[in-house]
Amino acid sequence: MQLTVFNRDPVTHTIPLEFLDADLEVGIPDSDDILVGDFLELYVRGTPLGTRRTVTVADKQAAQGNPAFYYSMTIDKASFPSEGESVTFNVDYYVGSGSVKDLSNLPVEVILDREPPGGTPLPYLSFTPEQLDGIAQSDLTDDYLEVRAPLWYGKRIGDVLTPWLGTSETEGVLITESEVEVTSISETTFARFPKSLLLINGDVPQYFAYQLHAGVTNQKNVLRKAVADRSITAWASLLPPYSPHSKCQTRSFRTALFLLRYWGRIFQFASRTKFPSFRRAPSFSCTGWPKTEQRRN
């Protein structure tokens, strides 16, 4: 009869992250072939795992007439993978007496996954050329800036993407109301940044980021603090050559109610406070380094 690995997802074969801080319990069902004095031993890849358990008279008495009975054994948490690693193995068991032992030949696959979704570091968000060239009201969808997330390593149904918006690489907020759950691996996943937050931050550089939460294992990735490794300037015609290794910054809209002039076009944004002065709106174009820095070779 096949053993049971408790807290194992029957579909994905993974053990959720919250159960990896303790030893993993394994249950071996009783049968008429298991006798008092026999020993039970777990095996992984043909190698004994843990210590043997000897079947006692009390065990057989407890098992009699009780189909829910099992012999409890454990896999020591010391054998679990380190943070950032994933291990897949098949666990089986032997029933033995003296020097003779029989394998059940009904192995169970177990995945101990401590690897953050997307790998380390996460890939950058993929801004379109139009988004990098300048953000206007027409670039928003239902008052959200939608930025495509790349197909990340280990993407699974149930993964959750949470956008992050900040005024520096360390100061910002996770936008939990814009969380997106993956329902199809092949479909593109978008990070959605609300217009209201873009306005609230004021006239400072803004940093776009995201976090991935593995729906199966509950493993979270470290925030990718700069999602389009570029800085922002006002006019595309002034851009120096693109460099792929600097921070992503955006100039936000100044205040609440104003008219946004974007390359000769007029867009009116709704707001909640007073009228500011008119000014030229910033566009979102890439230089490859912060605007205040000099180019470095």
Question: Explain this structure to me?
Answer:
With 297 residues, the chain is mainly β. The protein has 2 domains: 4-113, Immunoglobulin-like (Sandwich); 129-286. Helix content is 6%, strand content 33%. The protein has 3 helices and 19 strands. The protein has helices at 57-63, 129-133, 195-200; strands spanning 4-5, 24-29, 39-44, 47-54, 70-75, 86-97, 100-103, 108-113, 144-149, 160-166, 172-174, 180-181, 189-194, 205-213, 232-233, 250-251, 258-262, 265-269, 285-286. Strands 3, 4, 6, 7 and 8 form a 5-stranded antiparallel β-sheet that branches. Strands 10, 11, 12, 14 and 16 form a 5-stranded antiparallel β-sheet that branches. The longest helix has 7 residues, at 57-63. The protein is rod-shaped, with a radius of gyration of 28 Å.
Oligomer: single chain
Strand content: 25-35%
- The helix/strand order is EEEEHEEEEHEEEEEHEEEEEE
- Inertia-based shape: rod-shaped
Give the N-to-C terminal Cα separation. 67 Å
Number of strands: 19
**Biggest β-sheet, characterized?**
5 strands, antiparallel
Low-confidence stretches: 224-297
Rg, rounded, reads: 28 Å
Class based on secondary structure composition and strand pairing: mainly beta
* Tally of structural domains: 2
Supply the number of helical segments. 3
Fold topology:
Layout: E1 4-5, E2 24-29, E3 39-44, E4 47-54, H1 57-63, E5 70-75, E6 86-97, E7 100-103, E8 108-113, H2 129-133, E9 144-149, E10 160-166, E11 172-174, E12 180-181, E13 189-194, H3 195-200, E14 205-213, E15 232-233, E16 250-251, E17 258-262, E18 265-269, E19 285-286
Antiparallel strand pairs: 1-2, 2-5, 3-4, 3-6, 6-7, 6-8, 9-13, 10-11, 10-12, 10-14, 14-16, 15-19, 17-18
